[in-house]
Specification:
- With 237 residues, the protein is an alpha/beta fold.
- It has helices at 2-23, 34-37, 45-53, 90-103, 119-123, 130-145, 170-183, 214-236; strands at residues 25-32, 58-64, 108-116, 151-155, 187-190, 198-199, 205-206.
- Helices cover 45% and strands 16% of the residues.
- The strands form two sheets. A five-stranded parallel sheet has the order 2-1-3-4-5, sandwiched between helices. A two-stranded antiparallel sheet has the order 6-7.
- Strand 4, helix 7 and strand 5 (187-190) form a beta-alpha-beta unit.
């Protein structure tokens, strides 16, 4: 009887292990401009998702570039005048090269795209093009990754320049980013209004800055991780 019970337990454990293996790994892609550049996933994001899913069940790809508009990730974008810029989609290609290398030979249980960008488009007053552009970016990802179940987490622009003095479309971009996240069936957004006060990495005191404090970037990583984990778990139910 004990022998049969032991065999049953062993069989159950093997079944659980095989199921976990079949399920694959959870891929998290983090991209955007300067506030994503300054976010260091190893500080808070990666430890949180590894704690939740297991160190060997997580792939984190981080690639960002300061001061760049959406079209550097989007191949089909055109200016309001209908002009296609020379540098279109080059940062997307760089990002996807990293994704391909990190995921080669791996089975993926989920893919979550985490985005922190929009300041440059706000400054250029291209907010009217942003929603359609971002949706095209998601379609690029879906096509290249071969799946239609992407989770999406967006960092909403902070309260920097909410009076639109130097970044004329700042308040519009905040609303657009939130709208995109809320309307996406597997989307969510992160508040950053309290992250741009305090002490930055240069040791300077900042208040309502374009960039965030040292603690602010740590909190951003934690918030991105919490939202991403929740979306992955929700999809599993």
């Amino acid at each position: 009887m004990k022998s049969l019970l032991s065999l049953g337990i062993i069989s159950l454990l093997l079944s659980v292990e095989l199921s976990a293996e079949v399920a694959g790994k959870h891929l998290f892609i983090l991209s955007g401009q300067s506030n994503m550049v300054w976010l260091k996933p190893k500080v808070a994001f990666t430890p949180a998702v590894e704690k939740e899913f297991g160190n060997d069940k997580v792939i984190v790809v981080h690639d960002a570039q300061s001061g760049k508009p959406l079209h550097r990730w989007l191949k089909s974008w055109k200016t309001p005048e209908g002009v296609k810029p020379e540098a279109s989609g080059d940062l997307y290609d760089r990002l996807m090269a990293k994704v391909k290398k990190a995921t080669e030979g791996q089975k993926l249980a989920s893919v979550t795209f985490i985005w922190m960008q929009g300041e440059r488009d706000a400054r250029l007053q291209w907010s009217s093009l942003y929603e359609a552009g971002f949706k095209s970016l998601l379609q690029q990802l879906e096509t290249d990754l071969g799946r239609k179940d992407l989770n999406v987490v967006i960092g909403r622009l902070s309260d920097f320049d909410n009076d639109n003095r130097s970044y004329q479309d700042c308040s519009k971009m905040r609303a657009i980013l939130q709208k995109i996240a809320e309307e996406h069936p597997r989307g969510d957004w992160v508040n950053t209004d309290d992250l741009n006060d305090g002490i930055n990495r240069k040791g300077e005191k900042i208040s309502n800055d374009l960039h965030y404090s040292v603690e602010g970037y740590k909190l951003l990583g934690e918030r991105f991780a919490a939202k991403a984990i929740a979306l992955v778990r929700r999809a599993e139910t």
